[in-house]
Amino acid sequence: MNVFKDAGHLFRFAGLFVLAFIVFWAIRGYVVPKSFGEYGHYRGNAISEIAARPVHFAGHDTCETCHTDVLDVKKNGKHAHVNCEACHGALAKHADDPASVTPPKLDTAVLCVRCHATTAAKPKGFPQVSAEEHSTGLPCETCHQPHSPAMVAGGAK
Amino acid sequence: MKISRRQMLILLPAAAVAWESVLAGTPEASPNYKMSEHWWSMLIDISKCIGCGNCVRACQTENDVPDGFFRTWVERYHVSDENMTNPEVISPDGGKEGFPEAKEDEGKYFYVPKLCNQCADSPCTQVCPVGATFVSPDGVVLVDQTYCLGCAYCVQACPYGCRYIHPQKKVVDKCTLCYHRITKGLTTACCEACPTGARQLADLKNPNDPIHAFLKTHSVQVLKPQMATGAKVFYNDLDGSVR
After folding, report:
1. How far is B45 from B211, CA to CA, in rounded Å?
2. Could you tell me which of A115, A117, A106, A114 has the C-alpha nearest to residue A141?
3. Angle at CA B213, nearest 5°, toward B207 and B214?
4. At B111, is the secondary structure helix, strand, or coil?
5. Predicted confidence band at B207 (pLDDT cuts at 50, 70, 90)?
6. Which residue in A has a C-alpha nearest to residue B56's C-alpha?
7. Quick check: B229 and B122 in contact, CB under 8 A?
8. Judged by CB atoms within 8 Å, which residues 147-206 of B form the interface with A?
């Protein structure tokens, strides 16, 4: 035991060191979120929190479950692959509660031109018209049914 | 049953550890969604984009993006005959309300929709000092907004300019590839609203995803490939002048 005769200060220091480590570990355990490091150097629960954010666009499949009549009109027309909410806007609230939330009426004067106004920047194959030359400002739905826009004899049905 | 002091001392920490794991719980995930089964990306077909701005508006609605900030935006390139190497690029209000008229015979025009490239080796996640931004196990670059300090290192690090500091929250915000939608089996808001199918959500781990056939049969490029970011937003028909 003679070896440790004058080593008391070293033991006290080691004890202090161990104590400091325990305090550090306790604080760390309290401060660092439980899921931190689950998948990597971040809070694993953040992923499920982000996934839980509310949805605004219901998605085409949801529209299909009720509006089969519109789907029948659309499926053979040029707009067959345009999703409902591309024109009608985000309607998840309407899908959740169809009775009290009704979609706003659309203004074709704004809507059609947004895609179909002539500009040299658009891909050449895309159908484009200059509203003034094409219809002298008449509303598009006078002749075209938006869900299946090809011209039919006698105008829109 | 008699427990000695020694046994008690051994049992106590074990019980504490067990209780901790009970408290932590398991994160609430969407049913039937396994992160390990997906590797998300997006396909953008420049030859189909008409610059209508539907994607920008849809993104703003879906993700409450404040005015003047963008998670996705559309740029219009104008490569004139005289100056092929310096295209004129405009994106008025992110292309949300359309673009000024373009005239024929003034060189070529095309639209380039932009968003977070969901890099597999993203520079933005590497610089975060607190672990607030990361690549999720299914390949989406996300921000933990409760952890973000708003130091904006990542905003500077992103070579594509896809991040911004949210003016009210004062933390970083960016495209999440509509993570709250794709984990529920929906497509992103921008893809949902795109009238021409110029944007397509793609899952590289799904062998039935049409992206595999598309990548084999088309000349597809990513933005700034020289930066080796592992970008996963693939552009079809991309002009060499796009930066």
Report:
1. 12
2. A106
3. 125
4. strand
5. very high
6. A86
7. yes
8. 147, 176, 179-181, 183-184, 186-187, 189, 192-197
Domains in chain B, start-ordered, CATH in brackets? 38-121+175-236 (3.30.70.20)
Angle at A138 between CA A136 and CA A142, to 5 degrees: 140
| Contact check, Cβ <8 Å, A53/B180 | yes
Q: Which residues pair with B221 in a beta bridge?
A: B235
Q: Check if A59 contacts B (Cβ < 8 Å).
A: yes
What is the ipTM for the molecules in this complex? Answer: 0.85
Instruction: Give the nearest chain A residue to B131 (CA atoms).
Output: A42
Q: pLDDT, tens digit, for every residue of A53-110?
A: 999 999 999 999 999 999 999 998 999 999 999 999 999 999 999 988 888 888 887 8
Q: Which H helix or E strand runs over B92? A: none
Q: Are A85 and A61 in contact (CB under 8 A)?
A: no
Residue B27 has pLDDT above 50, yes or no: no
Mean local confidence (pLDDT), B151-164: 96
pTM, entire model: 0.86
What token pair was written down for B151? 């130091």
Q: Which two tokens stand for residue A108?
A: 């074709």
Q: What's the CA gap between B47 and B64, in Å, rounded?
A: 29
